[in-house]
Amino acid sequence: MAILLSVTGFDPSRWWQALHEAAPERRIVVDASEAGGEPIDYAVVWKQPPGLLATLPELKAIFSLGAGVDHILADRQLPAVPIVRIVADDLKERMSEYVVWRVLDHFRRGRAYRQQQAQKIWHERMQPAAREITVGIMGLGVLGIDAAAKLQVLGFRVSGWSRGEKRVDGVETFAGSAGLGPFLAASDILVVLLPLTADTRGIIGEDLLARLKRDTPLGGPVLVNAGRGGLQDETAILAALDEDRLMEASLDVFNVEPLPAESRLWSHPKVFVTPHAAALSDPDALAPIIMRQIAAHERGELLDNVVDRQAGY
Ligand code: NAP
Ligand code: GLV
Question: What CATH superfamily classification does 2-86+282-298 receive?
Answer without folding.
Answer: NAD(P)-binding Rossmann-like Domain (3.40.50.720)
